[in-house]
Write a structure and sequence with these properties.
20% of the residues lie in helices and 17% in strands. With 194 residues, the chain is α/β, with parallel strands linked by helices.
Length: 194
């Protein structure tokens, strides 16, 4: 099973060449047919439906939005969080598409290995690091990058709470894994090995 974020490192791999279940975030549907699309931003759900998302793909969004798309037979709600936290970043509404995509994989994977690609977290130039920047429903390329602390915490919780799943993060050689992601079930490999 593969989970794709939209960090710029993802452009180094042809997703069509990979075999397995594919979970992606937001605008990935523009370029690739995937099995599960996670869009917690209502605008992205509208865009995906209006632009003819793959008929076989399931689209996951927040429970708050799902009822607005009841005529679309492939709509689903994102999974419930597997824990109760006390901080703002533990609130379900603070979770983004990327962390929810990793959680969906952890909850539904038939095997034991989940491969992550495009979860760059950091920008190389302090500006937005997203391959869809400057397109509809995305920030402009000159906007300051989003602080990744929430994503780091949330994805780290998934790694922690699903110790029987093996997570392999494919990244560039210079990328550094966040300390909260260091668990026995998490490894980092270079993109060239994917």
């Amino acid at each position: 099973m593969y989970v794709f974020g939209n960090g710029e490192s993802r452009t180094l791999v042809d997703i069509n060449s990979l075999d397995g279940i594919k979970i992606g975030c937001n605008a990935i549907y523009r370029d690739y047919a995937i099995d599960h699309l996670v869009c917690v931003d209502r605008r992205m759900v509208i865009e995906a439906i209006d632009n003819g998302i793959n008929d076989n793909a399931l689209v996951y969004t927040r429970e708050d939005w799902a009822s607005q798309f009841k005529d679309f037979k492939h709509i689903r709600t994102v999974p419930q969080l597997p824990y109760n936290g006390t901080e703002r970043w533990d609130e379900p509404f603070q979770w983004g598409s990327g962390p929810y995509a990793v959680l969906l994989a952890a909850k539904t994977c038939k095997g034991d290995t989940i491969r992550l690609l495009g979860f760059d977290l950091y920008s190389s130039n302090q500006n937005v690091n997203n391959i869809y920047k400057d397109t509809s429903n995305y920030d402009s390329a000159d906007k300051r990058a989003v602080d990744p602390r929430y994503w780091i915490h949330q994805i780290g919780k998934v790694f922690e709470l699903y110790p029987r799943r093996n997570f392999v993060i494919y990244q560039l050689p210079e990328w550094e894994i966040p300390k909260s992601w260091i668990h026995p079930n998490v490894t980092v490999d270079t993109i060239s090995n994917l």
